[in-house]
Fold these 2 entries.
Entry 1:
Amino acid sequence: MQDTLNALLAKAPAELAALKSRAEFEAAKARYVGPNGEFTALMKQLGTVPKEQRPVMGKLINEAKGQLQAQLDATLQRIADAEIAAQLGPAVDPTLPSPDAGPGTYHPLTQVREEMCRIMRKAGFTVVEGPEVETEYYCFDALNTAPDHPARDAQDTFYFPEAARFGNVSKKVEGEKYLLRTHTSSVQIRTMLKGQPPIRVISPGRVYRRDTTDATHSANFHQLEGLYVDKNVTVRDLKAMLDYIFASLLGKGTTTRFRPHYFSYTEPSFEVDLSAKHLPKVNKEWIEIGGCGMVDPAVFEAVGYDPNVWSGYAFGMGLERLAMLVYGIDDIRYFYQNDVRFLKQFA
């Protein structure tokens, strides 16, 4: 039996190396380890081996089975790689000139982000960035978001397993979870913790929420948020800034209005609507564009600011929605499809 086992292992490599297709592989696999295969037949003979020899022979069969399975796996991988290579064709030479005429262009979302940053820099704002992987403290606790707030539910936020570790993002509170940030407001908290006011910053970046993807929503999108902290900052300053931003980006015919709303980190809080009927594909008098408000005193206390001395405003908006208004795009999914025909329109 041992001689038969050795002979089978000796002939398998050459036979498997000659296989060229999945059909040939499946046939060879059946001959070896199928219900009526050679190796299967040997395993069935183990019962005829004298009792005292069975442990040794059983060990040899298991070792042989492992060797044969490794050869089968390697053969299948080789055939699969060959199939992929045949589909891909010859390798592309990256040194060849591009068949596309003219230079490349920035993605429309990048163009809108850079234009917004340019507008805000003119108003004295500095661009700051932070990690996309955050902790509950920076994303929720320091922003006055209660533990039972719906935004903290696992159905709204992407949490990492408790065993996950990120060396570049330290936990502020023992036992808190890591998550993908749901807004760039966490960058504002990090900024305030670094020093005292006055502060005037914007924080553009990618954010994540559990959402159904359709023409106007995506689980992965981009935000731009602003924060201004100084003495005697009022709602009037906030309204004037938003009027300046949207008029600069969308044209002088753009106007804004506030509607009362609730955000845990601002008080009072407002939804921001804008009117821009001069833009393409805008068929409503008012369009919801973002949220804003005066920074809640509890947020100032969390970062060590005296709310009796300092006041400030914060606002946030989605870059995709702005880009859709600027370029007349009616489906957010176009931004993520990497369709060259779509992207070439923004050269």
Entry 2:
Amino acid sequence: MDDVRWLTEEEQEVWRAYMTSSVEFSAYVDRQLRRDSGMPMAYYEILVRLSESPGRCLRMSELADASLSSRSRLSHAVSALEKNGWVQRRPADGDRRGWVCELTPAGFDALAAAAPGHVTAVREHLFDVLTPEQLDALRGIGRAISAGLRTECDSVREEEAEAEAEAEACEAAGRGGADPDGCPG
């Protein structure tokens, strides 16, 4: 434990201020979306990503990456969105194992109805409380933190994709139990 670079009192203050504001802001936006639109922030983010994509559709793996979600968490969210009629899944063209998620007209309408309240919440509790200089600094801070995590995040995504591909290969081969080929049981 001698090699741990403990936070100074000032660093602890910065860390706690960042964490508190980040958690409180995310929780506020999520509550606002749930209350006003009946959807959590994660669903809103998926609908936004699809709405901004060509043809309003993305491969499931691309959607997971774009929405900063694990593939399994995304799959559960997409199932719920399908039940609402907001998205539909279909096989990817020319790829037997790949799937595409497509925003439906009803999903686009739900997103359009949710957007004004969401944008108002973000504007009032982020943009209106910061100066232009603080917003520039916040952009730089966000980019620096993301860049510092990129290698780690890419590695985790790669591991998840490999595990998913292995599970799909085992499923396609009709294997449910452990076997010499390493299919999970």
